[in-house]
Amino acid sequence: MKAIKISYEIVCAVATKSGTCPICNKNVSRKTKFEFTVNPFNKNSDGTVKTKKQVQEELDNEIKKWLPDFTHEKCKTLKSILDEAYILKTEHPSKDCRHFANNVYNFLKKEK
Ligand SMILES: [Zn+2]
Q1: C-beta atoms surrounding 66 within 10 Å
Q2: Tens of pLDDT, residues 20-61
Q3: Quick one: which of 3, 19, 36, 68 is 20 to 30 A from 28 by CA?
Q4: 59 C-alpha to center of ligand 1: Å?
């Protein structure tokens, strides 16, 4: 059996969006690559194969819909430590625990 390699045209775009980290309020920009192929399996509801222009429009729509997470990884970690410290501080008020949690809580609050 002979194998035939078929290559399809690729429509791609690199999208960049900027926003604000909800925790530290700094500006963040996120970048991602979108890639769609023009191929005979990519059809419209009426059964016709999508044209390059239609695939391009679809890609533009995907970019419009794309909602990146602007929260920094570092901020997510900091927030979870803060939350944990807060829970410890309020829900486990045994002396040692409270002392420790208070320290962590105040330290992180200052760092922020
Ligand atoms: Zn941040």
Answers
A1: 12
A2: 999 999 999 999 999 999 988 889 999 999 999 999 999 999
A3: 36
A4: 29
Domain parsing of the chain, residue ranges: 9-65, 73-111
How far is the centre of ligand 1, averaged over its atoms, from the C-alpha of 71 (Å)? 6
- Distance of CA 21 from the midpoint of ligand 1 (Å): 5
Residues by chain with Cβ below 5 Å of ion ligand 1: 21, 23-24, 72, 75
Closest C-alpha among 65, 93, 94, 69 to residue 79: 69
Give the span between the Cα atoms of 20 and 31, in whole angstroms.
14
